[in-house]
């Protein structure tokens, strides 16, 4: 395929019930397709129109799901269209090829993190020591690569996140606040590095990308063309760059618009 499409998933292509942003009258709300079930409950959705477009996109381009989710979390998702040849999980820490981890890629990522960043244990200790039980609900370590907190967003002091970001910056880590989750991720652990590897292997001539959070900025900058929805960290800071289109749509309709833009661009090559 001459066109590679690397897209973030959560709050870019797929949406939880809380993130759908169905602001229209109920009778005009789009029909939704559930694409993720967790513990016997529906969890993530896209519109039926987006599902149809995504199926068409799988025939027109090399579609590469590109997520911060762990492999286990990613494998709960059942997207329409042909099964992706490649998928990127754990923010670039794992490259899946036909559903299986590429161990050589993972080993190269681990070596780079060990050389360039403060250890994960130090970051986890700092998170636990400084987080307030009043607003902290869970702490998780993902794939032994990065950490995140689940918080009560309305109780979370804004200054705490800013102070954490400064502390992390000095240790080679970055911080991203996405909904109820605060991510602490090593700077070299990037979606863009994994996408470049897929470009190298596939020989793709054009790369398209979409994402909504700070952890997607490097992905968008590495692409030839990119899109971001009207919600999320990037929209909140009015982030933009050459070749990036900021869409006005928010919620699940933004996801539909992004897939449509991908398909039009892929077919226009």
Describe this protein's structure:
This protein is of the alpha/beta class and 269 residues long. It contains 9 helices and 14 strands. It has helices spanning 48-60, 71-74, 103-116, 120-130, 158-169, 191-202, 217-222, 233-236, 252-267, and strands spanning 3-7, 32-38, 41-47, 62-65, 86-89, 94-97, 100-101, 136-142, 146-151, 173-178, 181-186, 206-210, 225-228, 244-246. The protein has a 5-stranded parallel beta sheet. A 4-stranded antiparallel beta sheet has the order 8-9-11-10. Helix 1 runs parallel beside helix 9 (252-267). It is globular, with a radius of gyration of 18 Å. The model has no long low-confidence stretch (mean pLDDT 96).
Shape: globular
Number of H/I helices: 9
- How confident is the prediction overall: mean pLDDT? 96
Order of helices and strands: EEEHEHEEEHHEEHEEHEHEHEH
Short note summarizing the structure:
By secondary structure, this protein is α/β, with parallel strands linked by helices. It has 9 helices and 14 strands. The strands form 4 sheets. It has a 5-stranded parallel beta sheet. Strands 8-9-11-10 form a 4-stranded antiparallel beta sheet. Strands 5-6-7 form a 3-stranded antiparallel beta sheet, with helices on one face.
